[in-house]
Amino acid sequence: MARVDLxxxxxxxxxxxxxDFADVVTIQEGTPAAPVDVSARTYTAQVxxxxxxxxxxxMAVDMTEAASxxxxxxxxxTVTDDLRGEYVWDFQQSTAGVVRTLMGGKFIVDPDVTRAx
Length: 117
Prior knowledge:
Blueprint: E1 9-10, E2 13-16, E3 21-26, E4 28-29, E5 34-35, E6 42-48, E7 55-58, E8 60-62, E9 70-75, H1 77-80, E10 85-95, E11 98-110
Parallel strand pairs: 1-11, 2-11
Antiparallel strand pairs: 3-9, 4-5, 6-7, 6-10, 8-9, 10-11
């Protein structure tokens, strides 16, 4: 019998406090896997102190390249400036009312040395 693992992929980030954060994921489907148009889908990503904690950062989602399967997500430096320590994050997709968490993990924010005055 075939097994399908639908658990989110693990992806940990470590950034410096007060820095901009941004990344891009390419959504692929099929066999062999190939990028798909995700223009009709919705994506959200959040950072929390713990899985059940309050949201400390809601990531901005960029769908500019959605037709080629690319989805960007980011947090501004003004938001990371208030973060310090270890958090958790995840990235969800909603398609026709079906929600699936695609990836998530730790989101670690290290103190920085150079600070804006």
